Amino acid sequence: MTYRVGIDIGGTFTDFALLKGNEVILHKNLSTPEDRSLGVMEGLGKLAGKEGLELGQFLGKCEAIVHGTTVADNTLIEMNGALTGLITTEGFRDEIEYRRGYKEDIWDVRLAPPKQITPRRRRLTVPERILHDGTVHVPLDEDALREACRKLRLQNVEAVAISFLFSFVNPEHERRAKEIVTQEIQNAYISASHEVLPRAPEYDRTSTTVVNAYVGPRVTGYLEKLVQRLVEGGYQNQLMVMQASGGVMTKEYIDGAPIRVLASGPAGGVIGSAHTGTAKGCPDLLCVDMGGTSYDMSLVVGGQAPAEAGWNMHHRYLIGVPMVKVETLGAGGGSICHVNAGALEVGPKSAGSEPGPICYGRGGTEPTVTDALVMLGILSTDEGFAGGSFSLSKKGVTEAFQTIADEMGHGDAEQAAFDCWRVVNANMSQGVRRTTAGKGIDPKDLVMLAYGGNGPAFAAIQAEDLGITRVLVPKASPTFSALGTLVANPTIDEERSYIASANALDVDRIRQLWTDLSNRARKYFTDAHFNADQIRVNYQLNMRYPGQNFSLSLDYQKDVPLGDLSFIGDDFGARAIELFNQRHMAEYAHIREHEVPEISGVRLAAHVVTPSPKASGGFNPSGKPPVAAKQRRANLGEGFAPVPVYLGKDLEPGMEVPSPSIIEETFTTIVVYPGWKAQVDDAGDYQLVKG
Fold first, then answer.
1. Phi/psi at 18 (nearest 5 deg)?
2. How does pLDDT run across 413-456, given as a tens digit for each residue?
3. What phi and psi values does residue 268 have, to the nearest 5 degrees?
4. Which residue would you say has higher pLDDT here, 383 or 685?
5. Helices 413-437 & 455-466, crossing angle to 10 degrees?
6. Which residues belong to the signal peptide in this entry (predicted)?
7. Distance, first Cα to last Cα, the chain
8. What is the predicted pLDDT for the residue at 666?
9. What are the helix and strand counts (H, E) for the chain?
10. What is the residue extent of each domain of the chain?
């Protein structure tokens, strides 16, 4: 028997999904912020114990460990990345600060700009200039470059970003600059724009390169430490890491551009959602993930989780690499409830895992959403909570909410907890409305898929607010992002710049660029022990009309063997124009019939299909009634009353659970609010249905 393990580290819990044949085994471990690799190894040890194995035996049987990490995200949130310098073309020192004049809220005159990763004293320029056609206009001044290195060295920089004008067309100067910086600033992490984002526009490329330099040492340092612990423990294969684009790849590949893992944790859940929704006949989904620290929202359309390059609003830096679009709110189980100027607020500050909510009994003193759920009777204080791994206590919780009630000037502790429940639910519903409205989508047309440890506790009431009548809750929802990493395929998505009118192409140049990208993909997949004949490729083009600032990506040839470029023929340009016009019409509902589009770059998206958890759908009523295991006093939105509690282990496919009721799974609680019913489908997953 061999195993595949998916891991996702959150602010409060580290989640594990063990794939054993077709069986999925879930586990949750408190995160260890001081060294997150310790929490990973501790959880792997407990999984080994569940299988009756020593850690070394278990790791020796693991054919793949796939990891989604929030190291890059946390580095940007906490602003504790490497001391970073920037070396750029003379005259472009302040471009990174201009931000194209962009401001997230144009009406807020007091909105401060994002904290500078590279303040002006660490942004230095050197004489050099490459023109748009790749010709050298001004040679690189190596003496000036060495002087810039000396100044950065005196400032004790740990990382250096290099971004020269038009290096994506001709990287000669950046390559030489990287050699010199390596000599002059030893042990510095170096991020060169032609390696991180080899395309225009200039600001996108520079911003992405700077952020990559800032988070790079933290990401690579963490992954190296984890790999070392895994190898010492007996793991014999390469660590696979979740990418923000929705694919996974080896740690060695990620080392080249660590920014690829930014937001990779949430991406795993979205990929898992697309897989599950498609299997259950729901290709259009609103995905909501409520964990311990945050509430993540994303959309799946037509069974696909689109990856987009652009503004990462959460961190306020432009990130040019493809990322599965996830919007985040500071609304999780650990979000702290407090009174501000007489108004009740929930979040965004979180109690995390240390000390955590008051009910954890780990020293927390501020009331949280989880504490409110304990007060409302939604969460159990029995010893069997979370599979018996730990229990919740009401000690200190009532007093904390009474303080909230006193500050509000009305009600008691239970009313204050209910008010916190209402506020956090309203915050999440409003967040969904903003996300869907911005894309012109009506939530009523979607099926909600809820996951995360706390998502199913709020899912039905949120769906009712939004006009949604069906909610999917996978049995694996508490560790769904970890499970999603096992669904994601090993993927390489890279591009190279090539600018030319579509009716005046150098087809040999395009063939050479795609060949170079194919060889690069072959190397990394081969190093990861995949055979070349397993690799399937989408050969893509980036195209635009003359004068447009941004390009659209389109598939020129889909799902072909790696290196098979036999589709390139004399009609290459004409077919490219036809495909682009179709793509432009689909995206913008118009085309410029009398204009010839231009190619701005070529892309290669290569992947290997690997085993993934099976998902199926369908609900066939068995007629067998469920039996409640117990009853407790709870408030499900209509005041306190005795509520039946069902245990997930007692429910069988085909059963229907009436409302109001509570279903306790090992690591999550599903609330069946008044007016809803829960059905257990053929796969053992849940669907909540209105009416």
1. -100, 120
2. 999 999 999 999 999 999 999 888 877 889 999 999 999 889 99
3. -60, -40
4. 685
5. 60
6. none
7. 44
8. 84
9. 17, 32
10. 79-218, 335-422, 491-608
Question: In which band, very low, low, confident or very high, does the pLDDT at 575 lie, cut at 50, 70 and 90?
Answer: very high
Q: CA-to-CA distance for 520 and 257, rounded, in angstroms?
A: 14
Q: Which residues contact 310 (CB under 8 A, 6 or more apart)?
A: 318, 319, 320
Q: Per-residue pLDDT averaged across 310-322, rounded? A: 77
Q: State the number of CA atoms in the 13 A half-sphere of 574 facing the CB.
A: 3
State how far the Cα of 471 lies from the Cα of 463, in Å rounded to an integer: 7
How far apart (Å, rounded) are the C-alpha atoms in residues 84 and 145? 16
Query: Which of helix, strand or coil describes residue 649?
Result: helix
Give the list of residues 6+ apart from residue 274 with CB closer than 8 angstroms, or none: 285, 300, 303, 304, 305
Query: Of 563, 513, 522, 560, whose CA–CA distance to 541 is shortest?
Result: 513
Q: What is the pLDDT of residue 313?
A: 59
Distance CA 154, CA 190 (A): 17
Rounded to an integer, what distance in angstroms lies between the CA atom of residue 162 and that of residue 179?
Answer: 11
Amino acid making up residue 602: V
- Write out the E strands in 156-263: 159-163, 189-192, 239-242, 248-250
Q: How confident is the model at residue 33 (pLDDT cuts 50, 70, 90)?
A: confident
Backbone angles phi, psi at 485, to 5 degrees: -65, -25
Cβ(70)–Cβ(265) below 8 Å: yes
- The pair phi, psi for residue 590, each rounded to 5°, is -160, 160
Contact between 478 and 668 under an 8 Å Cβ cutoff? The reply is: yes
- Do the Cβ atoms of 226 and 40 come closer than 8 Å? yes
Q: How confident is the model at residue 200 (pLDDT cuts 50, 70, 90)?
A: confident
- How is 512-558 classified by DSSP, letter by letter? HHHHHHHHHHHHHHHHTT--GGGEEEEEEEEEE-TT-SS-EEEEEEE
* pLDDT single digits (tens) 204-227: 999 999 999 999 999 999 999 999
What string of DSSP letters covers 376-437? TTSS--STTGGGGT-----TTHHHHHHHHHHHHTSS-HHHHHHHHHHHHHHHHHHHHHHHHH
What is the distance between the alpha carbons of residues 683 and 507, in angstroms, rounded to a whole number? 50
Residue-level length of the chain: 691
| CA–CA distance, 206 with 208 (Å, rounded to integer) | 5
Give 79-218's CATH code, choosing from 3.30.160, 3.40.720, 3.40.50, 3.30.70: 3.40.50
Going 639 to 640 to 644 to 646, the CA torsion angle's sign is positive
Distance CA 282, CA 37 (A): 36
Residue that is written with structure tokens 């020796």 in the block: 60
Residue 558, CA distances (Å) to 78, 304, 307, 492 in order = 41, 16, 17, 15
Indicate the class that CATH gives domain 491-608: alpha beta
Give all strands of the β-sheet with 661-664 in edge-to-edge order. Answer: 630-635, 640-647, 661-664, 669-672
Task: List CB contacts of 477: < 8 A, sequence separation 6 or more.
Answer: 450, 451, 452, 455, 456, 665, 668
Provide the b/e sequence for 277-294 (b: ≥16 CB within 10 Å).
bbbbebeebbbbbbbbbb
Angle at 94 between CA 257 and CA 601, to 5 degrees: 45
